[in-house]
């Protein structure tokens, strides 16, 4: 029998979100219904609302979520009723060409629920990142559920489902930061701040945080930054950027071992590119818009060596990484709870988008 719950949808491009009734069907054979306890407000949800990702309205928003498994399909073996889980949007299939090569983090055929959630009039909903967790309950594939220690605060645990894991993984997994290395992070939203924290936990000894907001630069020190650069009044582009000069000054004139662009616009991309030491690694985890183009002289690309890598979901494997970082947080070794800036109600999502755009939070988290 289907279940009707309250959820938050985006009905049309750019329009304010709506709180309405959502119909959850009985789970398919490998699906589960999760009772949502908390869900972070991520920039990706705003991008769905504004039509920057797809045009498959209406969207059921929300995806950085934690909750408890309530109902399971007949063939579910991965989780059981009562399990505390973090939802993920990379439920690897194990069968595609990437999985067969052992590159599970690049799975091309990740699993989603076999049935559609709908409005009460039968209109099918597109769940954000295949999850749709701004709702009292949601329907996902069993592989989208990762069991973690139930002692964790759901508001903190859910943030591993997207942005925090993306930034953390950009440093630890994609950038492969090692003990004693130097790292620069450009852009200090939730993703960039998680990259700072990831660089610290990986053992970097010089961590440079760059942003235009002094408040975020102060926050970055709490997450592990050893140096900060206020780029709001600095000029120049590319290799001639004053930001690049300051990064090199901090690193004895050489540049960093790893540079992470957590914004995804060309000024920060170029700053990260030129802030590297020769043969340094650059990671792009900020998502560019559909019209952006990378523009650097080919000789600079060739001559500086090293590697340039995009970070998809921080190259994470949820089954490996989510339990690990929950446990590290419970051991007071990773500051996951510090990313929770405020706790809000389901009806406060639209206001939370405004707060996020103003740069006043790392994460607003909906508590259900």
From TrEMBL:
<dbReference type="InterPro" id="IPR020843">
    <property type="entry name" value="ER"/>
</dbReference>
<dbReference type="GO" id="GO:0051903">
    <property type="term" value="F:S-(hydroxymethyl)glutathione dehydrogenase [NAD(P)+] activity"/>
</dbReference>
<feature type="domain" description="Enoyl reductase (ER)">
    <location>
        <begin position="7"/>
        <end position="366"/>
    </location>
</feature>
<keyword id="KW-0479">Metal-binding</keyword>
<dbReference type="GO" id="GO:0005829">
    <property type="term" value="C:cytosol"/>
</dbReference>
<protein>
    <recommendedName>
        <fullName>Enoyl reductase (ER) domain-containing protein</fullName>
    </recommendedName>
</protein>
<dbReference type="GO" id="GO:0008270">
    <property type="term" value="F:zinc ion binding"/>
</dbReference>
<keyword id="KW-0520">NAD</keyword>
<dbReference type="InterPro" id="IPR011032">
    <property type="entry name" value="GroES-like_sf"/>
</dbReference>
<dbReference type="GO" id="GO:0046294">
    <property type="term" value="P:formaldehyde catabolic process"/>
</dbReference>
<dbReference type="InterPro" id="IPR036291">
    <property type="entry name" value="NAD(P)-bd_dom_sf"/>
</dbReference>
<dbReference type="Pfam" id="PF00107">
    <property type="entry name" value="ADH_zinc_N"/>
</dbReference>
<dbReference type="InterPro" id="IPR013149">
    <property type="entry name" value="ADH-like_C"/>
</dbReference>
<dbReference type="InterPro" id="IPR013154">
    <property type="entry name" value="ADH-like_N"/>
</dbReference>
<comment type="similarity">
    <text>Belongs to the zinc-containing alcohol dehydrogenase family.</text>
</comment>
<keyword id="KW-0560">Oxidoreductase</keyword>
<keyword id="KW-0862">Zinc</keyword>
<dbReference type="InterPro" id="IPR017816">
    <property type="entry name" value="MycoS_dep_FDH"/>
</dbReference>
<dbReference type="Pfam" id="PF08240">
    <property type="entry name" value="ADH_N"/>
</dbReference>
<dbReference type="InterPro" id="IPR002328">
    <property type="entry name" value="ADH_Zn_CS"/>
</dbReference>
